[in-house]
Each structure stands twice: as C-alpha cells, then as structure tokens.
Amino acid sequence: MQATAATIQARSTPLANIAETVPRYTSYPTAPHFHSGIDAISVRGWMEALESNEEISLYLHIPFCDRLCWFCACHTKQTRHYAPVATFLRALHQEIHTVGAIVRGRCRVRAVHLGGGSPTMLKPDDIVALGRALRDRFDFLEDASLSVEIDPNDMDEGRLDAFARMGMTRASLGVQDFDPKVQKAINREQSFEATKGVVDAVRARGVKSVNLDLLYGLPHQTLDSVAATVNQALSLRPDRIALFGYAHVPWFKKHQTMIDEAWLPNSDERLAQSQRAAGMILDCGYQAVGLDHFARPDDTLAISARAGKIRRNFQGYTEDACDTLIGLGPSAISKFRQGYAQNIVATGEYEKVVSSGQLATARGIAFSLDDLARSWIIERLMCDFAFSALDLVERFGDAGQKLLLTASRMANGSDALLVLEGDHFIVPVDGRPLVRVVASKFDKYLENGAGKHSLAV
Predict the structure, then answer these.
(1) Which pLDDT tens digit goes with each residue over 69-82?
(2) This prediction's pTM
(3) Which of 128, 188, 197, 327, CA to CA, is 20 to 30 A from 30?
C-alpha cells in the first residue's frame, strides 16, 4: 500500500529553516553531479537496451527566445533574427533522425513535451515539419499526448493552427504575474487580455488541458498583488496551475543580476505568498498535487495523484509513467533505466556534433542500487509526502534497509519533519512546504558541496 497526500493526517510542525537552500529534486542524482564518464557510447548502449514495445517519452528543447526574461533560469538565448533558429532546426532534425534510427522498432512514444526557451518562437511551417519528422522517425501510440510551453506574446493564428496540426493536447502558458510593476522588473510584459486570448484560442482548437504557470517571490510582489494575479488566473478556469517559487540564482544565470535583490521578498514573505496563493486555488475546488501543482479533480493529474501514481521529472509533476525519457536539443536531459544523460549545452557545439550523425551526449551519471533507492524515496516524498518502509525494502533489499535508519533518526528527531505512522514515514501537513529539505536528508551527494541551490520555499 502506498500513502497519498489525501490519506496523511495533519500534524503540527514548526516551519524552521525556510531560508535553507536545497535542490528542486526534479531528478536524483541532481544535474551538478553528472560527469563526462557517461558519453555517446554509453547512451547508445542504453538506447539499444530498450525493452521491446516499451513506452517512452520525448522532450524537445528549443534554446531560443525573442526576449530574455530576467527571472528565467533555463538554458536559452535571445535572438531577434530567425536565421540561428533555422540553423538549429536543421541540426534538431538530424538528431531526431539519428536517435530514431536507434530506437525505432524497440519502443513507442507515449508523450512529447516541447520546452525551452520558447517553442512558440518557431514559424508555423517549421512547427508542422517538426511534428512530421517526429512521427516519421518514431513509432507513436495512437493516443500519445503532446504538451507545448507557450509564451502568449509569440502566438498568432498561424502558430495556433500549426500546433493544432502537430497534435497539441496540452498547452502550458507562462504567466508568472499580471502586475505591470512586477512584469517590468522581470522584463516580461504580458497582458491578461493576451493570455486569455491564447487560452480561448487553444481550447477552440480542441486542446482539452490548459496549464498556467505562476510565480511567487518575484521582485515587488506583495500578498495583495499575488492574490490579484491568482484571481485573474482562476477566472480563466485552467485545468492545472503550477505555483513555483522564483529561484534567484544569479551565479548560474547572469541576467538575473538585472533584478535588484532589494526588490525581492524575504523568506517569510515568500512563504506567506505561497500559502495565500495555494489557499485561494484550493478554495476554488482544485486539488493539491505534490508541492506546487494544482489540478481540477477530474483532470488526469489529480486522478493519478489520488491513486498514488504521480511521478516527478524535469517538467515537474506528471502522470507520465514512462521509465524512459529521451531529451533532444542542446542541454536536454534523458532518463534511462541505467542512468541520466545530458546533451551538449552550447548550441553551436551541439549543432556541429549532431550534424555529423553523432549523439550529442556530453555527460551524465549511471545509477547504483543505492541511487535508485534514494531516488525512489525522494520522488515519493516529493509526490506523496510519504513512503512505505515495507515497499522500500521489498524494492531495494539491503540498500533500502540501510536508508530506513536515516528515516528513523529523522522521525525520532526534535524538528518533527518526518513522523512514523504504521508502515509509513510521513511529512506532516504543516511541514510540507519544507519537503525539499526533508528530501535532502536522503541525498548522499549534497554533502560534497557540488552546486548551489535555490531557497527551499
């Protein structure tokens, strides 16, 4: 039996250490611990080991934007000219050809996710051609899903029609905040009317699932301004809402130095903003999913969450049950049963390598049994706020048994961030904003100091 968020009883837990910095745990081991020992030869072997008729997911990274949002921590670059995008697309088509030649006949595509950068920066004909190339080179399931990250400022009728022809089933719109003062501070000016127009347009083209991304902890945000943005977002009746805390990492993304740190809310204010926003969303009938996602009760993500079947990957919380995710494009990360692999980050170098017919792998990490056990605990904590001791040991044997000692020490500690109820170690309700801190206690790599991280809340 696996505990879900709905089955966990409330406990009173002090919210200490909200200013602690820890990974977001969209993967374990996390990306700072990838190394060059995993190369194209390794990844080709992992691809060739895919099981017959295995269902897989694809992620395509489009590394360009026509403007640079100062809050963004993605691998992307600004360009006002389309020529670099066209050059990149030729390389991406070649990578699709190379990877497809290895895996076609071994697996079938269950889900595709287009991210960036801004996939919506592509011209309509290029969007359609990309969709055709994917279906020419991979075997798709008839009911495969296609999710697209959308910048509403990019959209026009041609692009809307092109994504519809490509088969888009879910649209995820970046909103962040509707307050003009906040938008100016993050270089992301986007009207409510433009956002509503795109929501209405994708629904008119048959898209059944619309997600809105909101941020708290941005410069100049207040409780009232966050509440105003949430009210406007709710008026659009999205199927899902992702409520992220702004990750201020100027040492990693230099353009974030354009944001004056004096404008940023402190840790207590960030927590208050997140709780106010979450409370408003829940009051409108949405179901909480993991740490920072919300969905309508009849949405597939909410249904999977109630069944204890949600997963967590680089796109956040998902009902996608595929064990293999193949990333295409510069910096894209793949997950195989054997480990993680990341493509070359620099777009020019990526184009050079894939244009010669090679895989673009730059680094990665192979899983040990201990990694898999820790990853399972971290994912279940992030998704369900709980894990079963019996399930852990049944899955991972001695490796799981050893990790129960860590869990037991935490449950017997004074901070009560983890408690034991029957067979389940549980993050109490009041401690759930700190679930990333709880997860970090099972991260054996964190103590070596590789990488700096964002605030836990």
Answers:
(1) 777 777 888 898 99
(2) 0.91
(3) 188
